[in-house]
Amino acid sequence: MKKRFLSVLLTLFMVLMMLPTTAYAGTAYCDICGKWVGTTSTYEYKDGGYHWEHVSCAECGTNISNPRSEHNWSGTATCTSGQTCTVCGGTSNPLGHNYESSVTTEPTCTTDGVRTYVCKNDSSHTYTEPIPAAGHNLEKVEKKESSCTEDGYETYWKCNTCKKLFSDAAGTVEISNPTAIKATGHNLEKVEKKDAGCTEAGYEAYWRCQTCKKLFSDEAGTVEIINPIEIKATGHDLKAVKRKEAGCTKDGYEAYWRCQTCKKLFSDEAGTVEIINPTAIKATGHNLEKVEKKDAGCTEDGYETYWRCQTCKKLFSDEAGTVEIINPTAIKATGHNLEKVEKKDAGCTEAGYEAYWKCQTCKKLFSDAAGTVEISNPTAIKATGHNLEKVEKKDAGCTEDGYEAYWKCNTCKKLFSDEAGTVEISNPTAIKATGHNLKKVEKKDATATEEGNSTYWFCDKCNKYFSDAKAETEIKKEDTVLAKLSTVNKKETEASSAKTANATKVTSTTDKTTKSSPKTGDSTDVQLYVILMLVSIGAAAGAGAKRKLKTQR
Fold this sequence. Notes:
By secondary structure, the protein is α+β, with helices and mostly antiparallel strands. It starts with a helix and ends with a helix.
């Protein structure tokens, strides 16, 4: 046990010996003194990344260890100075200058420019150097002579670099603008207006420059034109002089055309055949026609018989045309014979009219009894329009027709298929009865626990019940229900069903036998007796079985 304890102590001592001396601040194991002692430390700059820590025994002064550690820099490095370590007092290397240049003043043709250098590490470190002036790059611009309206200029030189102008090739005399040579102005002479004739064109007055030969429409020479403004030949201004028929006593003449401009006469509308005088038509004498007497009307006078010359239109009171008159001899008007037409009220679509008066003689209409205000038609009373009320749509049933929605006028009682009352109908638009959608429900026998039902037909549209496939006999749902069976009835029914099934089998066999045997007479009673006998036997067997079952219970 003691050996194991000593072994543990020795192992612990060896582990402590292997730990770095910096594990205990201010103390270390001194091999010279042979014990743990206090220590002193001094620091020495090693390089840009680290410094040495010299750890010594505080008692004997022996150097125990020399670990290195990173600098603890303070301050900011500049182009000319580094950072200072707060532990060893050493300094890092300065950053050094890193200059970048830019042109701060562009050189001109005559003045130097400036290039400035700025240190990227410290913008306060700058210096400049000059950029030499380039000198003018002169190009000669030749002299331009002045014209009537445009100034010219003397020869000059232009610098393609600074764009300045100079009057000399050496570029010593700067000018703001080329030396101008003033425009001379037009030397205009007026050409007078020439009027157009009927067949020859003319022109408006214009002015011509004797120097540049240009033409102008105005005296000031501001509106230049290529050619004088033409005044088109007017062509003859022909005015038709209608044919003048010869009168009864005076000659006439044929139609002709006269030019209002040149006064010439032409026998044709195109003005191609000139004539001196119109072509004459000789006098004809009177051509009299009788105009019969006209009786006077209600408001219009009539007149007596007279004669009218068809040529000169003069009137004569005698057939020989010797007594000329200005107007036919008048017969005075009789006045209206008025009859009142009563007012007619307006309907929905048919207008009515106000009362009016009609003359029985001239048939004219008047709005007043005195016949002073004539009207073309009676004064209308506008139709009132329909007073429509909507009748809602009625859907068709299985057997009863329905109808679409319609509108009924409460005034005239007419029917319409639209809300606006534009489409009249005699009756509402019918929606045909759909007919029953019948589904057959087969007969289901009742049991002791569940009701049954008889065979019936059900319409899933109107939810009605029918006893036949043609839906002629309607019934109630309860009419289809077969009541539940009692327990005794159920057993008897089952037994009866079994007997009936056996009887049916026997009957089938008998029928087959009967059919295969030749008929010697009527066998109906025999078959009935056989069936009854079988049913009796079955009933007796059932009763015996029932008693046996009770005995066993």
